[in-house]
Amino acid sequence: MVSMKQAEPVTAGASPVVELRDIHKSFGALEVLKGISFTAREGQVVSLIGSSGSGKSTLLRCINMLEVPDRGDVLIDGEAVALSGDGPARRIGDENQIRRIRSELGMVFQSFNLWAHMTVLGNVMEAPLVVQKRDRAEVEAEARAMLDKVGIGSKADAYPAQLSGGQQQRAAIARALCINPRVMLFDEPTSALDPELEVEVLRVIKLLADEGRTMILVTHDMDFARSVSDRVIFLHQGLIEEEGTPDEVFGATKSARLKQFLNAANHA
Amino acid sequence: MFEDLAFWVSYITNGKHLTWYASFQFTIYAALLGGALAVIFGLTGATLKNSRFAVLRLIGTIYSSIVRGVPDVLFFLFFPLAFEQAVEWFVATQVCTPESIAAQTSPWPPCREANWFLGTTEYLLLASVSLGLVYGAFATNVIHGAMRAVPAGQLEAARAYGMSASQVLWRVHIRQMWVYALPGLSNVWMLIVKATSLLSLLQIADIVLWADRLGAPNFLPTVGLVHDDWRWRYYLVLFLFYILVTWLSERAFEAIMRRAGRGILSEVPA
Ligand SMILES: Nc1ncnc2c1ncn2[C@@H]1O[C@H](COP(=O)(O)OP(=O)(O)O)[C@@H](O)[C@H]1O
Ligand SMILES: [Mg+2]
């Protein structure tokens, strides 16, 4: 099977947007990440795959410091995120820096995490207004455009609880888009959805990939990973077991563990 | 008959009755101010209990567990007196001279210059602070529980989008906390309303004190015995007042709940 990705393959020369260097993370005695490095370049879609509990979410959450890695560095657009202390005591070093960096990383969660007390439009406008401090009229116009883009323009004034799961996740994607992110971070965006609602969300993510947005995507959906990615990374027991283009990883699998994983995924 | 009516109208609008009616404002002020302070102390206590620092957590826990056990009557008597004497003691260290101390005849305050005369306004403020402190301990527990009911994922999303700790706290955490806290806070509010009947303990001429005085057998030189012991009639008016306040409070809490719960409480999927 050939890659279905339509955009030009992103050259290795494009500038790095997210760079992880030797990331380690433990929860108590459980060592979840054992030294992971990779780079997502401008315009690339990088998919993280691996069995449940292999540390995909933890790795993604290290990028915006929802989890602080015990060791290793995170660089966004070449700028290292300041951290202080060592090991489990390691903390965010500079609150202002991390807030600025976070305001450029659009995260989409498995369980949507829309703010329940705000309308859909309010959710999308919140960070641009209170974090980025942009002009309200401009933000509202852009927010409405983003909602149209993900196909829920008519739901702007509804509350999240009034929407279906697929609509909520698309609202969450619009929320991420409206901050004009340098990179979109998706953590299994369709895992909480019924199969018939999955399609509408995948279609939106595909659209964003084709626009050439930089994205890091944790997914269980191997067909989708294959169709949308420039690079695929397979995590196993806290390490990168195999990585490469979708054709390499899915078409010419080297690792026995990955073969086993893909077999299991195909029969799921 | 008409003359009777005219008499009773003028009787219930005489000076003492008008003072009684006016004294309802003390009860209302004390409840409103006490309620506002209870929420402020409750928010503070809950924030302390959630603090990263063990010392602050301990203070919050001690406040909410100890003060909840103190009878409100006792605290009402203790706090204003202790506060008054503490202020007088402090003022005394500043203003008393050896001569003025020698000239003082009563055992307290140390000198006459340090005496602090408390009028109705001062007592009302102290009463409100007492109410706020006692019921703030209940509010601390209610709010602390409600804070934990707010979905963690939404707080995390707020952080992930670059909100500062105080933005997360006020724009998401506390904003959503009200929905879970309001049922408990409405109970605390009703307790505060009931406790306002203790104002006369602080020498405030409040509605209870006046009902007592006006209900006692009344003899006017011009008309003879107006009524004998009518206290139960006057107390009945207080009952009706408190029932009205309860009813109004319930309506108000329903309205606040509807507003605070928008989007959170049972929305019909569109
Ligand atoms: N906050 C946490 N505290 C303790 N253990 C955690 C925490 N987050 C994740 N873990 C553990 O780390 C491991 C990896 O989790 P996760 O990154 O969510 O895996 P994945 O997303 O690949 O399924 C799991 O065993 C999980 O139980
Ligand atoms: Mg996960």
From TrEMBL, chain B:
PROSITE patterns on file: ABC_TM1 (PS50928)
Which chain positions lie within coiled-coil regions? none
Q: Where in the cell is it found?
A: Cell membrane
Name the protein family: Belongs to the binding-protein-dependent transport system permease family.
Q: What is this protein called?
A: ABC transporter permease subunit
- Per the record, the domain of life is Bacteria
The GO cellular component terms are: plasma membrane
Q: Where are the transmembrane segments?
A: 20-43, 55-79, 123-143, 188-211, 231-249
Topology relative to the membrane, per the entry? Multi-pass membrane protein
Using the record's annotation, list all stretches that form the ABC transmembrane type-1 domain: 24-253
SUPFAM superfamilies attached to this UniProt entry: MetI-like
What is one GO biological process annotated to this record? transmembrane transport
InterPro entries given for it? Answer: ABC_transp_permease_HisMQ (IPR051613), MetI-like (IPR000515), MetI-like_sf (IPR035906)
Mind giving the lineage of the organism this protein is from? Bacteria, Pseudomonadati, Pseudomonadota, Alphaproteobacteria, Hyphomicrobiales
| Protein's UniProt keywords contain Membrane | yes
> What keywords would UniProt list here?
Membrane, Transmembrane, Transmembrane helix, Transport
A Pfam family that this protein carries is: BPD_transp_1
